[in-house]
Amino acid sequence: MMDFKDEVDVDAVARAGLEKLGYKQEMTRKLNASQQVTLAIMAVPFGLTSPIATSLVGGGPVVIIWGWILVSVLTQTLAFSLAEICSKYPTSAGAYYWCYRLASPRTRLLASWINGWLTVVGGWTVDLSVKFDMIFLGVTAVAGIFCIFFNRLLPTVDIICACWTGLGIIAKAAAGRRSVSFALGNFDPTFSGWTPGWSFFIGLLPWDWALNYALAYTFSAIGMIVNMAEEVHNPSEILPKAIVSSVPIGTLTGVVYLLPILFTLPDVATMLQVSSSQPIGVMFTLIMGSRAGGFGLVFIMFGISMFCTISTSCAGSRATWAFARDKAIPFHRCFSKIGPYLEDVPVNAYALSTVIQVLLGLVYLGSLAAFNAFAGVAVMCLGASYAMPVAISLMNARRDMHDAPFNLGRFGTVINVIAVLWIMFVTVLFSMPAVIPVTIWSMNYASAMFVGFGMISAAWYMINGQFYYRGPPILEEPTSSSGSSDSVPY
After folding, report:
1. How far apart are CA 151 and CA 141, in angstroms?
2. How far apart are CA 35 and CA 153, in angstroms?
3. Along the 490 residues of the chain, how does pLDDT read in single tens digits?
4. Is 404 within 8 Å of 455 (Cβ atoms)?
5. What is the helix, strand, coil percentage profile of the chain, to 5?
6. Which of 129, 191, 329, 419 is 20 to 30 A removed from 120 (C-alpha atoms)?
7. Which residue, among 115, 76, 87, 94, has the nearest Cα to 388 in the 3D structure?
8. Which one-letter DSSP state was computed for residue 273?
9. What is the CA radius of gyration of the chain?
10. 173: Cβ contacts below 8 Å, ≥ 6 apart
11. What backbone torsions phi and psi does residue 232 show, to the nearest 5 degrees?
12. What is d(CA 109, CA 465) in angstroms, rounded to the nearest whole number?
């Protein structure tokens, strides 16, 4: 652990590095590696439990356990790819800044604009999807109080969250045991209506979503970690480590959490007949053998989700603030301000994020299809936003990554290609309905929301962006053929 003098020295280097990337230090650096890694495990039980019905429909235990491991392995390639780029450009602007620095002068402005809106919309909707599964307005209010008035306590909240998550991992009791062959090998795709092969992949929807919530959640929270970059000590070293370690930590946590459930899993048909289409309460009650035991597990999941939404709300507000700082959001002067009376809190950006979420949430409140759409569009937006800089780097033959502090070396190209292909596949997957035949209630509206937000972004670019948006500031003109410039990481 660093002492005070070491922190001061490291923060001075970080401040100088941030200035070389074009920004001035406006927030206090208070986060360290342990707190960032805590984010990786805090929401795994919540992320795996909330949408478990889809995996039961898609095939059951095989999809749940082996799908989780498959998604983890493939998502690790994304974590490696983003950690490499982040080590060179560790700023809260995140992926849209990376696109601007890596793309050619001819395309970088539009690329960063598109990427920025993908990141901001993804941050809003991923936060909304967490709140939407709970007591929506109440949770939004509680998260707002913590994020605005108790910002300095966020590292402590992360630590408490890790301890609470531990309860969710171990607090399960067997009301009846299943065989090993059932827990690890049972596969029944008949509930989905899809062919067995595609049904397995449809069943992966929650696991992509859960990994999305696993570090602040591999797609989004990788982004969310980066959005907190200007509040982290020694970010060029700490952030890549946190990003890369998030997946194995989340994977192990998930396996430890899932195995007891699979060995005590109640009858699948009974759970899928629940009128609310959300079998969590019934599942926990049957597993624990009593309503009190089931309520206890649900309460633990609620606590985990509460901690989760505090972190997603903070990170989403930073993404909004960073994009406003670069004049890409309407009324950017207002939303790029750091509160003068509340240190280190972009209050106006947080308010904007919250208002948009409340409006969307009230329109669709109580709809399972809406919940799936919010979770799906979050993964689609954030997945696309992080695939873009990786794909641009590949098209540049990775020339800009040679001096990255966290370097993938000779395996970089293969890792990057797998990461991009995986996100392309996931984007298609999250556009598909979980069951067929499709009804208005089972339709997946994520793609419609994705296109809708894209049209709003394009319209604002035509109205305002093309005249005022000049991209992130850079102090040095690009020198490489790809349009990027060498920078001193910090």
Report:
1. 15
2. 11
3. 455 445 557 888 888 989 999 999 988 887 775 444 445 444 676 667 766 777 787 788 888 888 888 888 888 999 999 999 999 999 999 899 999 999 999 999 999 999 999 999 988 887 777 766 555 566 666 666 666 666 666 656 655 655 655 555 555 544 557 888 888 888 888 777 777 777 777 666 554 544 444 333 334 556 677 888 888 888 888 889 888 888 888 888 888 888 888 888 888 888 877 766 677 778 888 877 778 877 887 777 777 777 777 777 888 889 999 999 999 998 999 999 887 676 678 889 989 998 888 887 776 655 556 666 776 788 788 889 989 999 999 999 999 999 999 999 999 999 999 999 998 888 887 777 766 777 777 677 878 888 888 888 888 888 888 888 999 988 754 444 444 544 444 4
4. no
5. 70, 0, 30
6. 419
7. 115
8. T
9. 22
10. 264, 287, 288, 289, 293
11. -110, 135
12. 10
Asked whether the whole model's pTM tops 0.85, one would answer: no
Report CA dihedral (17, 21, 24, 26) to the nearest 10 degrees: -80
Three-state DSSP class for residue 443? coil
Please say whether the beta carbons of 90 and 229 come within 8 A: yes
Report the alpha-carbon distance of residue 269 to residue 449 in Å, rounded. Answer: 31
Instruction: Find tokens 């009974």 and name the residue.
Output: 270
CB distance 94 to 101 below 8 Å: no
285 is written with which tokens? 């009650």
By the 10 Å C-beta count (0-12 exposed, 13-18 middle, 19+ buried), 24 is classed as exposed
Give the three-class secondary structure for 231. helix
What is the crossing angle of helices 61-88 and 412-429, to 10°? 130
- How many residues are given for the chain? 490
**C-beta of residue 102 within 8 angstroms of C-beta of residue 34:** no
